[in-house]
Every structure is written in C-alpha cells, then in structure tokens.
Specification:
single chain, 574 residues, alpha/beta, OB fold (Dihydrolipoamide Acetyltransferase, E2P), inorganic pyrophosphatase (n-terminal core), 4 domains, 7-stranded mixed beta sheet, 5-stranded parallel beta sheet, 19 strands, 41% helix, globular
C-alpha cells in the first residue's frame, strides 16, 4: 500500500485553527477538507440548522409547493411512488406523514424489484393505480430518465411531481414538475449533492414556509426537526458527500435517531442490536440499519419497511423489524455464494490487462450483485460490474467504481448495446443485451483507457492527513476530532502517521485469528490502545522501529468511552 502524505500550508492551518478556537492540528484537517475561507470553515466545523439555505432557491420547488397546496385545499387523491432503497423508503415515509398531517390520506407504493424493476415502469404503475388513477402522482428517487412512463402518466391526465437526484441523460421534460439539482441547479450550490430524502425535506420546508405565510394553523403546529431522523438515514445510506447541507442533515439527524419517537425506527434499532439511548454513528446506519431496509427491497417487498416506518404500533413494528432481520440473513447467505463464484471467475482472468473487472452468471440473484460489486471493487481497487439474471432479453447488473473513474460517463459510449442504465459516478445500474457481455466488457474497458489513459495505477493507497508526534496524542485531540463528525463520503475520517514507534510487547491475536490488538506508548503518560481488523499474518513486530497509519477516536461501549486507534497500515521505519 502506498502512503500519500497530504501537503498543506502550515501557517494557514495555524491561523485557521486560531480563528476557529482549535489546535493547529484540527485547523490543518479543516483546511484539507477544502475550507480556506474562515466563514465557510466555521460553518463546516460547527454546522447549524439555521445555515440551511432558502428552499425556494431550488429550481421548480415553488411550483411544486403551490401544486401541493392546491392538492391539500381540494382534498385531491395523491399517489406517492418511491424507490425500494433506504433513500426511497425514507423519502416516501416523510412525504406521506406530512400529507397526513395536512388532512390527506395519500396512497403510497414501492415497486417489487424482482417483478417490476427500478423506477417508473409501466408494470409498476399499473399495479400502483389498480384502484383508480390519482389527481397527482409524486415520484421519489426515480423518474428523471423515465420519459416513456412520464408520457404514460401525463397521457392519463395525471399531474406529476418528480423529486430525484440521479443524473439526467437528456434535458428534463417540460410536461411535469421536476426537482433535481443535477439537472437544473448550479455547481457549488449547498443543496447540489442532496439525495432524494434531503430534497423532499427542502420541499416540505418550502411547503411549511408558504402555508405559515398564509397563517395556516396546521403549518404553525408543524415541527420540521421531527423528520431529521429519516433524512439522516437516507443521506448516510445513499453515500452522498457529507458536506454542505448533507453535513447539517447528518449531524442533527443522527442525534435525532438516538431519541427518535418513531416506533418503526425504535424497533429497527433494537432489532439491529443497538440499545436504545446508545450513540448511533454513520457506521451503524451503513452496516446495521440500512442493510436491513435494503434487504427487503432486494429479495422481497420493500413495502415491509415502509409500513413499519408509518406504523404507530410498536409490537407491529418490532415484528416487522425481526422479519427484516431474517430477510437480511437470507441476503447474506446468497451474497456469500455469489461472491465465492465471482472470485473464482476472477482467478481465471488477467485482471491487470483491463481497468474494469466484469463478471457474469445468469444464476446470480439480482438483489445482491451491487453488494458483490462493491466488495470486489474494494478488494481489487478497481471498478467492478457484476451481471446476474437475464430479463426480457437483457442481462441485468450493477457496478461500483473508485475515486477518479466516472462509470456513468463511461457507460454513455456503450449506450447502443444497453437497455436501462444510469446512477452516480461511483455506483451504476445497467442492463446489456443478452449475449453481449463480452463485447460490452471490451467496449467499456477501451472507453476507460481512452478517457483516463492506458497506464492507470490501481495500487491501493492510504492518504495520510498528518504526521503526529507522540506528545500530540491525548484527550484534547480526541475531543477535538469529534467536531469533524459525522464522517462518510466527502468527509472521510482522517488518518494519522506515528513514526519510529517501538512496541514493547508482540500484538495479541483475538477473534478468528485475523485480528490483533496492541498498545503504543505516548509521552502523555498513557498507553494508546490499538485494534487491527482482518490483518491475517501481516502483524507489526515488537522491538523494531515501525511507522503506523491510524485512525483515532473514542471507543464508546456500555455508556463509557476510551481513546482508541484503528490500524490502517504499518511499515518498517525508513
């Protein structure tokens, strides 16, 4: 693993730290996040809900608010159509609860992934409207690129609001209301990177503002903060950058999660093995709460977590949460088998010859191919696309990329052999004509080479933010690092180097034999506990000078906290 040390202006870091009232170390970390302006740096380090921008600055949001008010005043029939992942489920929950607050009883719907696929398909719409057509359809986390379905909806005389954050393949249609900052809003807008649940929150914020201007008593009694728990879940789970307004939503929403009054969230937290009242972190959302919601959409029916979030009966919610546990365990079993098969395919490939790894088996479950692509991408530090079942003449797959390679952009060059495709630079969904996976593999790899060069370096690297002295490591530093939370996409947890460390005792092996722990002496009178996960035989030696790459943070357990480091990499001192 290559060690890449971040270069920065030490004087500017010290000056920034002094302005912010923190150490030069934290000043350097804030500077490395890209904040040279002291005002923006202060907003990043100490974000406030008051920093959220005027929702009406989003293109088309005012038009959508006025259409919602008309629906509320006229008691119109509304259908909310959401996606089946965490972002879609939380978005649907949020807007349904808000419309209920204003006296409506909207129908709500999420497609069955296995039968109806993603988004606004005609098959899903026909089932969604089996009991009659609505006056207004609200599509969440889908719809930006669904031109045929949109024309079908509008042809039935149904008004349509689409709230989405997926990149558009062509200009947005003029026959409906589209809120999508990637289509209309300017680069650098603080709401530019919001996922759908964040955009829905902005829409609701605008609705409440307008109704309060009209002295609506229900709007006066409405508390927007009560919905931040849902916003934080969708924001963290959807891997959008935790900067600007996403950071505000995540920071305050995660605090709300811990004390959420929502029975469905309480049940999900308990069923996930988190004690009520315990601190909840982005890691808990990404690896405990989120996967249980997603598993239902991948293998079964995503209406289960949606009904759970909308219920006020804790017994019903806990029963649903336990069912989600079972579905998630089934997903894990399927995933293990597919991963094993996929890795066997890779063994027969010359993966050094191409920048993108593409594997395929029509027997693989489509609900896990994205997870497998993510695991393999991290393992090989390359873009990976995994294709599974064939449906209607197309092989369906999912891809994950690495920083610096935009898969959506690269897929555009292969569009004539694709069915549906789209997503984000780091994650894509794609379907290829049956029998053309090998041709697609060749075409996509040629495109990546042409766009990014033949000699791409895929050697894994670790980005070292700062080199610390032993005297720097103390309780004050651990407390200051808390100001950078929550970490996630766009705000990665900093990694520090400690050099010329000599371990007095060999590390202790624990768990499955793949993990170890040891202590590093500091000059502040305490020993820093270090844990290393899945290191195998790559264990640092005792009695030799060693450099460590570490993450630092409080380890909270059983209502106590102790300073702890997590080993990222080590090497013999040079």
């Amino acid at each position: 693993m290559k060690w890449e040390f971040v270069e920065y202006d030490k004087k500017l870091a010290a000056d920034l730290g002094a302005y912010l009232g923190v150490s030069p170390i934290l000043g350097a970390l804030v500077l490395q996040c890209g904040f040279t302006d002291p005002i923006r740096a202060k907003m990043f380090l100490r974000p406030k809900l008051a920093d959220l921008d005027d929702p009406f600055r989003l293109k088309n949001l005012r038009t959508a608010v006025l259409r919602l008010i008309s629906a509320i005043e006229n008691k119109e029939k509304i259908l909310v159509f959401g996606d089946y992942d965490v972002d879609g489920i939380t978005s649907t929950t949020l807007i349904v609860e808000v419309l209920r607050h204003f006296g409506l009883e909207p129908n709500y719907f999420v497609p069955r992934r296995m039968e109806e696929g993603y988004g606004l398909s005609k098959a899903a719409l026909e089932r969604a409207m089996a009991d009659g057509s609505p006056n207004l359809l609200i599509a969440l986390d889908c719809g930006t690129n669904a031109a045929d379905a949109i024309n079908y909806i509008r042809g039935l005389g149904i008004d349509l609001i689409v709230v989405d954050h997926h990149q558009a393949k062509e200009a947005g249609a003029a026959n409906h209301i589209l809120i999508n900052p990637h289509v209309f809003d300017f680069e650098g807008a603080p709401w530019r990177q919001l996922c759908t649940v964040g955009l829905v929150f902005k829409l609701v914020h605008g609705l409440i503002k307008e109704l309060r201007n009209r002295q609506d008593p229900l709007a006066m009694a409405f508390n927007l903060k009560d919905y931040l728990d849902l916003v934080s879940m969708g924001t963290v789970a959807d891997l959008v950058p935790l900067i600007d307004e996403n950071r505000i939503f995540a920071r305050y929403g995660i605090k709300r999660l811990k004390a959420s009054k929502r029975k469905g969230i309480q049940a999900l937290i308990q069923a996930s093995g988190i004690a009520l009242g315990d601190e909840i972190t982005p890691v808990d959302i990404s690896f405990r709460l989120g996967p249980r919601i997603n598993a239902s959409g991948r293998l079964a029916d995503a209406s289960l977590p949606l009904e759970m979030f909308l219920s006020d009966n804790f017994t019903v919610c806990y029963r649903a949460a336990c069912e989600l546990n079972d579905i998630n365990k089934e997903r894990q079993e399927i995933e293990r088998g597919v991963l094993e098969d996929a890795m066997k395919q890779v063994e027969s490939m010359d993966i050094d010859a191409n920048p993108c790894i593409i594997v395929y088996d029509p027997s693989w479950h489509p609900g896990v191919v994205g997870i497998i692509a993510g695991k393999m991408s991290r393992e090989f530090h390359k873009p990976v696309i995994v294709f599974g079942e064939i449906d209607n003449g197309y092989t369906k797959g999912s891809g994950r990329s690495i920083q610096g390679i935009d898969l959506v952009d690269c897929l555009a060059s292969c569009s004539e052999m694709l069915g549906s495709w789209g997503g984000h630079p780091m994650a894509v969904g794609v379907s290829v004509k049956a029998g053309e996976v090998d041709l697609f593999r060749e075409r996509l790899n040629d495109t990546i080479k042409r766009k990014y060069g033949e000699n791409l370096d895929f050697t894994p690297s670790v980005r070292i933010n700062l080199t610390l002295d032993a005297s720097d490591v103390g309780y004050e530093l651990f407390n200051e690092l808390e100001l950078l939370h929550p970490h996630g996409e766009g705000n990665r947890e900093p990694i520090f180097a400690l050099k010329d460390v000599v371990l007095e005792k060999p590390p202790e092996i624990f768990g499955t034999g793949q993990n170890c722990r040891f202590q590093i002496p500091t000059s502040n009178g305490f020993w820093l506990n270090v844990v290393a996960w899945r290191v195998g035989e790559n264990i640092p030696p005792a009695g030799k000078k060693v450099d460590f790459a570490l993450k630092l943070g409080w380890n909270r357990w059983n209502r106590r906290k102790i300073p702890q480091a997590t080993l990222i990499d080590w090497r013999e001192s040079q």
